[in-house]
Amino acid sequence: MESKTMLTELETVDNSSDKLEPWSKKEFEELLKQKGTSYHIYHPFHVMMAEGKLSKEQLQGWVANRFYYQICIPVKDAAILSNCPDPTIRREWIQRILDHDGFESDPGGIEAWIGLGQAVGLKREQIVSLELVAPAVRFAVDAYVNFARQTSWQEAIASSLTELFAPHIHQQRLDTWPEMYPWVDPEGMKYFKYRLTQARRDVQHGLGVTKEFFSRSRSLQNRALEILQFKLDVLWALADAIMLQQCEVTVSGPKGKS
Q1: Phi and psi (nearest 5°) for 252?
Q2: Which uninterrupted H or E stretch holds 38?
Q3: 23 Rama sector, left if φ>0, alpha if ψ -120 to 50, beta otherwise
Q4: CA-to-CA distance for 182 and 177, rounded, in angstroms?
Q5: Structural contact between residues 67 and 130, judged by C-beta atoms closer than 8 angstroms
Q6: Would you state the pLDDT for residue 15?
Q7: Is the dihedral of CA 219, 222, 228, 231 positive or negative?
Q8: What does each of the 258 residues of the chain score in pLDDT, given as a tens digit?
Q9: Is the separation of the CB atoms in 191 and 169 below 8 Å?
């Protein structure tokens, strides 16, 4: 089941590539994965984190700011559900909301992130009040949620494919934090453990939907690549905002020409 109007609109996004045959689904998947070179694991702030160079206060600032992203993930997913007429897609996608909001005996990912905040020394009230969240963090995250609300459900699903690259960064934190940040209570790192499994499951579904829908034409495939880059840019801007809040920045005039 699909919206023919939305399909028509998407297929005319880039007429210049309509004369080209679509990439095979295997080639298309490889191009999507190549976008991982823009993943925020390479952002200077995340590099500092991985190298154990963040202070306790900086790590606390990162956790507090990223909490805003965590609480907006199920809102984004609910927007995708509200725009999707296909019950098969909805039945599988709704699991993402349950993963974060919790269900029955599972307190969910948002609660696990609060536990991470407490493990780095923050109080629950500091985290849930959002008092430590930078304005630019709100702006970046809200831009992503608004995108999911206003675009087609197929495009919003394509934007979720940054999960292709997430298990690596979660595993990196599980491997390095005990040594780099021994003061962090290991019990608070449950979120990363949960997401190792959940992200791999989620990305298989999202990737399958994206490959099936967007492989109808080269223009649609290019559109999906643009959307994934947009989401990567959101995450990079989020890291920029946190770094500007948490690090001393020196302004020395215009950049030199390369």
Answers
A1: -120, 20
A2: none
A3: beta
A4: 7
A5: yes
A6: 57
A7: negative
A8: 344 335 445 555 555 556 889 999 999 999 999 999 999 999 999 999 999 999 999 999 999 999 999 999 999 999 999 999 999 999 999 999 999 999 988 898 999 999 999 999 999 999 999 999 999 999 999 999 999 999 999 999 999 999 999 989 999 999 999 999 999 999 999 999 988 888 888 899 999 999 999 999 999 999 999 999 999 999 999 999 999 999 998 888 888 765
A9: no
User: Residues 216, 77, 121, 183: what is their CA dihedral angle, to the nearest 10 degrees?
Assistant: -30
Backbone angles phi, psi at 253, to 5 degrees: 105, -170
Separation between Cα atoms, residue 22 and residue 220, nearest integer Å: 9
Contact 133, 63 (CB under 8 A): no
pTM of the model: 0.90
The residue to which tokens 């770094």 are assigned:
243
| DSSP secondary structure letters along 125-186 | HHHHTTTT--HHHHHHHHHHHHHHHHS-HHHHHHHGGGGGSHHHHHHHHHHHHHHH-TTS-G
Q: How many other C-beta atoms lie within 10 A of the C-beta of residue 47?
A: 12
Distance CA 130, CA 107 (A): 20
* 232, amino acid identity: L
At 8 the pLDDT is: 44
Torsion sign over Cα 184, 239, 126, 104: negative
Q: Using CA atoms, how far apart are residues 212 and 210, in angstroms rounded to an integer?
A: 5
Please list the residues that pair with 106 across neighbouring strands: 103
Q: Are 230 and 244 in contact (CB under 8 A)?
A: no
